[in-house]
Design brief:
globular, 15 helices, 393 residues, two-stranded antiparallel sheet, single chain
Length: 393
């Protein structure tokens, strides 16, 4: 993607920032007030490691992230797809995506993610038997997918998109042109995106549950109620990536001609709305004023508002504030994908290390986040010295 013939570095920096949120999200999952650990099926726990120390701030941080960061990740990933398809064609493009996504996914699921769950096995069984762990991991726990679920699902979305492009070559360019034209009328554009996002999320969530994963696909698990939701944002990214979308979306370098601070405040208010709607809906259900389905419907309607507002805030901040090259951000963005792949064992082992430490929760969280990020960053930097590893990381 280009701006005046050069790469839009702010999009790369935004993608790197989402990776930071992912590491922070996983670091925080050991400490929310709602955390629990199932020693029989630790895969069903809220996280591989659950600390006795809890902090309500972690609830809000996790909840805020969960509203938008993976939808934004799929959207940003989609922005780069169309030009790759147009340049290489569907078949060559998919071969490249398999190298870039498929091979790292297989390596992660065979070697990296099992390491992340070793502490969970030890806490559950007090055993250090490697054979016992492998049997339990594959059979009892049904081969947990971990964070690489995003990688395999992104590859699946790439495959579906390549098929659509092969069958209907003008589909995404037409979609992009339509979106660009609609952006000229921001209110209608926002209303359309909200309506499509709501339709893609709410019926399926009400049918299968709000946080339902497939659960029996082993390393090919995914969050069922959000799969269409994520595909929608991915395809919006593909469509916009086929067009010169930025001058329309960012008028005078501002999203819909609004300063990034406005969008930040809107995103915080929208998430507060999610919290309030969730609390009110729960109370109303208990009082018999509404059904549980109606309560979840209200929550989902607010959820979509918060998702779009937070995505808008991130796009606006990075477009307005990070358009010039930065050594630190450039280094991080070049290693962000690798950090995403390797960070999980560092997170869980550090959480395990600090389980019995007499430290405030916020200190544990900072140690885990900073340690996992630093060790992941260093590991990827070392791995990238190998030419083969550098091709996929």
């Amino acid at each position: 993607m280009a701006i005046d013939g050069s790469r839009a570095i702010w999009v790369d920096y935004l993608r790197a920032f989402i990776t930071l949120l992912v590491v922070g999200h996983h670091a925080a999952l050991a400490y929310p007030t709602f955390a629990f650990f199932d020693s029989t099926h630790y895969i069903y726990s809220t996280a591989p490691i659950v600390d006795n120390g809890r902090w309500a701030v972690m609830d809000r941080f996790i909840g805020f992230n969960d509203v938008f960061f993976m939808a934004l990740m799929f959207f940003v990933s989609g922005l780069f797809v169309y030009r790759g398809l147009r340049k290489k064609g569907s078949q060559v493009y998919l071969k490249g995506r398999f190298v870039r996504l498929g091979i790292p996914f297989l390596i992660a699921e065979l070697l990296i993610i099992p390491l992340a769950y070793l502490p969970s096995f030890y806490l559950s069984t007090n055993s250090t038997s490697l054979a016992g762990f492998i049997e339990d991991y594959v059979i009892t726990q049904q081969w947990p997918v971990g964070p690489p679920w995003f990688i395999w699902l992104l590859l699946a979305f790439d495959a579906v998109t390549a098929l659509v492009y092969w069958l209907f070559p003008s589909f995404f360019s037409t979609l992009g042109e339509s979106l660009v034209q609609l952006i000229r009328k921001p209110f209608r554009f926002g209303l359309l995106v909200y309506g499509c996002a709501a339709v893609s999320l709410i019926p399926l969530s009400l049918w299968v549950g709000q946080y339902t994963w497939i659960g029996n696909w082993g390393p090919f698990d995914f969050q069922l109620n959000r799969v269409v939701f994520y595909l929608l944002f991915f395809w919006v990214g593909v469509g916009l990536g086929s067009a010169d979308w930025q001058p329309y979306l960012f008028q005078h370098d501002r999203l819909f001609n609004r300063h990034w601070m406005v969008w930040l405040l809107v995103s915080l208010f929208a998430y507060w709305l999610v919290i309030r709607v969730s609390a009110l809906g729960e109370n109303w259900v208990k009082q018999g004023l509404i059904s549980s389905v109606e309560g979840y419907l209200l929550y989902d309607l607010a959820f979509v508002v918060s998702c779009l507002a937070s995505m808008a805030a991130c796009l606006s901040i990075f477009r307005q504030a990070l358009r010039k090259p930065s050594v630190g951000w450039t280094n991080l963005s070049g290693r962000a994908y690798g950090i995403y792949i390797v960070h999980y064992p560092f997170v869980t082992w550090l959480q395990f290390t600090f389980l019995d430490a007499s430290l405030p929760v916020w200190v544990k969280f900072l140690f885990v986040f900073a340690g996992a990020l630093s060790l992941s960053w260093l590991s990827v930097s070392l791995l990238r010295r190998n030419s083969l590893a550098a091709q996929v990381l």
